[in-house]
Design goal:
Blueprint (H helix, E strand, L loop, with lengths): L1 E3 L6 E3 L2 H4 L4 E4 L6 E7 L2 E8 L1 H6 L6
The structure holds zinc ion (ZN).
Length: 63
């Protein structure tokens, strides 16, 4: 799946093998912003800009 970084607009490509059903925080490797991804039936439902603190609290951070 592909996510557009809400902070810098960079296209983040996530490998389906690793991230096909991944829900949670994704770090933009271009600008370092943390994006919270929510899925619905394997498709991206929403992407929200979040902070590293908020993401770490959910202990799902994958950087
Ligand atoms: Zn970015």
């Amino acid at each position: 799946m592909k996510i557009n970084c809400l902070s810098c607009g960079h296209n983040i490509v996530l490998e389906d093998e690793s991230y096909g059903d991944y829900e949670g925080a994704i770090k933009c490797y271009a600008c370092g912003a943390i994006l919270e991804v929510k899925l619905s039936e394997g498709r991206i439902k929403s992407v929200n800009l979040t902070s590293i603190d908020a993401a770490a609290k959910k202990s799902k951070l994958r950087v």
